[in-house]
Inverse folding.
């Protein structure tokens, strides 16, 4: 097996958008005392403001689930691996309006994120590295420097009308992406997708609206080791952009 599988020349990397998914593992630590509900409509905290009205709907929907039978039917992601996961998700998401916020690159703690070095993570937090886009089941297209609440939601969970989020987010991306999102995407000529199956439709929707894309590629999967390997490869590529 080759030691690296992202075959991009250094000059290509700056023009490549790497799309990764959020992670189930999340830090409880907040960076600011602001509440998520008060920051949704502020570009300082969330770059792609065209999605702000949707974020408000998502906040209201999941934070007002009153009955456990409803929660059990909504939170179906990881049901077979963690049968009682719905209970934690219900409790966590009911507190969304009062949740503190943290930048996405610091909120997510999964295996891909663990394999990003501290310098890379800091550059992503500061926005000096700009070619990473995270797909969040709560927040949709998310920059590493965007601020997120502490939450528990997966693409396997349901939205209204018994539709899974993995089926809604591609539609929302196509319908709601506006000037901010499309201007950001216009900076890139290539897209490299490093996500699992439930996030792939949203990643493909992002690719479809990229105005200047010339080449796209999906990261090779090596089973359960893939996520860690993707993190190491991403770290290697981004390191070439740091002077």
């Amino acid at each position: 097996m080759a030691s690296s599988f992202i075959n991009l020349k250094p000059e290509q990397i700056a023009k490549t958008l790497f799309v990764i998914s959020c992670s189930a593992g999340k830090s409880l630590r907040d960076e600011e005392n602001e509440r998520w509900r008060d920051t949704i409509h502020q570009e300082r905290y969330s770059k792609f403001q065209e999605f702000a009205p949707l974020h408000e709907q998502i906040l209201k929907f999941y934070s007002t689930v009153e009955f456990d039978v409803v929660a059990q039917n909504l939170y179906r992601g990881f049901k077979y691996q963690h049968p009682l996961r719905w209970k934690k998700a219900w409790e966590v998401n009911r507190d969304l309006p009062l949740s503190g916020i943290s930048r996405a690159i610091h909120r997510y703690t999964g295996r891909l994120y663990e394999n990003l070095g501290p310098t890379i993570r800091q550059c992503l937090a500061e926005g000096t590295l700009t070619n990473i886009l995270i797909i969040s089941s709560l927040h949709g297209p998310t920059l590493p420097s965007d601020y997120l609440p502490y939450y528990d939601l997966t693409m396997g969970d349901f939205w209204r009308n018994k539709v899974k989020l993995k089926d809604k987010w591609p539609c929302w991306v196509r319908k709601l992406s506006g000037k901010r999102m499309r201007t950001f995407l216009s900076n890139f000529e290539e897209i490299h997708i490093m996500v699992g199956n439930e996030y792939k439709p949203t990643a493909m929707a992002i690719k479809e609206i990229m105005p200047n894309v010339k080449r796209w590629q999906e990261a090779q999967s090596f089973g359960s080791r893939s996520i860690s390997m993707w993190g190491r490869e991403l770290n290697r590529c981004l390191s070439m952009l740091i002077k």
Remarks:
- The first helix runs from residue 10 to 13.
- Residues 10-239 form one domain.
- The mean pLDDT is 93.
- The longest strand covers residues 16-21.
